[in-house]
Amino acid sequence: MSRQGIAVLGFVLSLASASTATADEEPRRGRGNVFLRGGAGNYTGDLGENVNVGPTWGVTLDLQPLRFLSFELGYEGARNTAKTALLDISLTRHGASGLVKLSLPLFDAVRPFVGVGLGISNITIGGDLRGAFESDVVQEVPLALGVEFNSDALIAGARATYRLLLDENLGEQVENPQGGFIDVVLTLGARF
Questions:
Q1: Predicted confidence band at 6 (pLDDT cuts at 50, 70, 90)?
Q2: CA nearest to 89, candidates 140, 135, 139
Q3: Do the Cβ atoms of 72 and 98 come closer than 8 Å?
């Protein structure tokens, strides 16, 4: 091999080792995450006065095109009960929402975030007075605040989400309440 060939080979090898060192210094990041979540939630406003806190659950797909911006698509469920002298019912909620999240790009390991989006839920009412109430589909505006702790492949976090319920039909059925639904959940996810 000629001197020029050796010089070119040495230059290519030095570029390859420099790019490998740079790649090792930068955290490995996937562009997507899948989260499972679970926690507790309740209705706010007048409806929340008669409804008990209940379990919430969900699964979320999170796509992150930029370090500070991500888009979530998720399914949420919840079950709450209401027991008074006049009624003994359960409220089961199944919903879907899309959320835009903004996070501080300062740290990769710990990322606080805020989010806003749109959603829709079906709230099924069951119990002793089932005939007096009807299930309802409600539109929602979810507002989220949380923090995520990231490692190479796993992500854990906590978040609170308030969902402003835009449909008044359900509210008119139970003494005209106003408000929304709030939940606090823990999340566990994997990066892909």
A1: low
A2: 135
A3: yes
60 and 144 co-located in one domain: yes
Q: What are phi and psi of 83, to 5 degrees?
A: -135, 115
* Tokens representing residue 159 in the block: 């978040």
Residue range 120-158, pLDDT digits in tens: 999 988 876 645 566 788 899 999 999 999 887 899 999
- Beta-bridge partner residues of 34: 61, 190
Q: Number of helices (H) and strands (E), helices first, in the chain? A: 3, 8
Q: Which residues pair with 73 in a beta bridge?
A: 61, 98
Residues 6+ apart with CB under 8 A from 164: 140, 141, 142, 143, 180
9 φ, ψ to 5°? -60, -40
Distance from C-alpha of 31 to C-alpha of 191, rounded to nearest angstrom: 8
For residue 24 the two structure tokens come to: 């090792």
For 3, half-sphere exposure in the C-beta direction (CA atoms, 13 angstrom radius) is: 0
| 127, two tokens | 């119990």
| Residues 18, 107 share a domain | no
Tell whether 81 and 176 lie within a shared domain. yes
Residue 123 near residue 139 (C-beta atoms within 8 A):
no
Pairing of strands 69-83, 54-66: antiparallel
